[in-house]
Design a protein that fits this description.
By secondary structure, the protein is mainly alpha-helical. The protein contains seven helices and two strands. Strand 1 and strand 2 form a beta hairpin. It is elongated and about 65 Å long.
């Protein structure tokens, strides 16, 4: 088998693993990976401003606002205006949101990060450089992306 076939098969396996995990997450929790990340950031911060959530999950504030809108519609988060500054809005998990978060399976990237941390520095550097080169070879190095392992539009249901 030529090297390019090995590479394409590995990329396809990664894509399939992400797709399978995304579907399992949706089936078990009714959440997408970005929604789960946003909820985890809110839990970590307590009451959080959308801008700080966006910084935490490395998504644009517009994307985070869309995700929060959907989470609020599902009664998983609530918005509350600051009493000190009415322009500021804080996001909090509802009781339903906390329960849903507890029942949600671990994100695929959590296991990946655990395994990556076990590698030597040179191995991590080699993987990063190789994947960045593959992205460039596929004309994908200029595509904006957050470190969320999910296929499709991050703002869609």
């Amino acid at each position: 088998m030529p090297a390019y076939d090995d590479i394409l098969v590995a990329l396809r396996r990664i894509t399939r693993a992400i797709d399978i995990q995304s579907k399992r997450l949706a089936k078990v929790s009714g959440l997408t990976a970005p929604q789960l990340l946003v909820m985890q950031a809110i839990r970590k911060q307590g009451q959080a401003k959308p801008s700080s959530i966006a910084q935490d999950v490395l998504l644009s504030q517009a994307t985070v606002t869309t995700i929060i809108d959907r989470l609020e519609t599902s009664e998983l988060v609530s918005r509350e205006r600051s009493t000190a500054d009415r322009r500021v809005v804080f996001i909090s998990l509802t009781e339903t949101g906390r329960e849903r978060l507890l029942k949600a399976p671990e994100l695929l990237q959590a296991g990946f990060i655990r395994e990556l941390d076990k590698l030597e520095d040179w191995e991590r550097s080699l993987i990063v450089a190789s994947l960045q080169r593959v992205a460039a070879m596929m004309d994908a190095d200029d595509i904006e992306a957050a470190p969320i392992l999910e296929v499709g539009d991050l703002t869609s249901e």
